[in-house]
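Many introductory courses stop at the sequence. We go one step further.
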Amino acid sequence: MINYQRELDKLLESLETKPKLLLHSCCGPCSSYVIDYLKKYFEITIFFYNPQIEPREEYLHRLETQRELALEYEIEVLEGHRDATPYYNGIKGMENQREGGERCGICYQFRMEETAKMAKENNFPYFATTLSVSPHKNALKINKIGEQLSLDYEINHLPSDFKKRGGYQKSVEISKELGLYRQDYCGCIFSKNQREQEKQTHEKGEEKNGSNGN
């Protein structure tokens, strides 16, 4: 198994300048630790490209949170387009899969590819994503996608497993310190429905336990 944190350590140690990095962000809270970690090594620009987020009000709330965080670090946020057609075309037949399956891999792919394309077009020597900071995201799959996109677009991908060394917990702590909005589902309508079903099941279980206790 590749240790992507170790690979990142090697890359950071080899840097002789402070190159530009286009960092795809899935949300403000996840990007908080990643920005804090990488800011001394790179000139970071955030790319908020998450058109699969539903409903629209939730998307706008997360975008505003991202901009709020960016002000703290004095970095720029670029917003991607809102056309989620590639996502919905790609996941046909997978709508009922649970979070973490093949459908999520397709979601990683289309967001990371748009990031690589944007980085190439705007002369960023490096691109990366904050996705691996989440304990629910598959770092191996994310990095394999990044490696292939690096070859396809002839641009450097930053290897990462940002959840390592307490990265996720640090993102939670930074978010609390700054009072950032933290969502309770990944983003797509399918993850939203799954989370609501889990909440209902949990509430019914508590009601049943409460009744048994009386």
